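To make the argument concrete, we let one protein speak, a sequence paired with a row of structure tokens, as a model reads it:
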Amino acid sequence: YMVQVSESAKKDLKEGMKLYNSENNIGLKNAWNIIQAEMKCCGVNDYTDWYPVLGENIVPDRCCMENSQDCGRNSTESLWKTGCYEKVMSWFDDNKHVLGSIGMCVLIMQILGMAFSMTLFQQIHRTGKKYDA
């Protein structure tokens, strides 16, 4: 179901783009700006994803290769052409060994925590001390 998950994620991201200029979602606006600046990408699939949200030939300034005030207005030459979905998925693909290692460390810590809590429970039970809850 990778194709369906991918299409659903793209659809949800495009729905989130519609809230970019709303007053109550400054965190969403900052997140889009940071991702586009750090990943050097624009929109979900490409920069044209912003046209229904901001207007024809208008993209956020963070989509510009050289960021300046109002650089995203009527500019198609100096924009990042790659979509952010593709960039993020390639980042996950490049760093899957790191993410897997972190997941395994968390798993091992959880298992050790359960083992030590069971050992402590058995030790308290053997001594015969009963505590009322």
In short: The chain is about 60% helix and 0% strand.
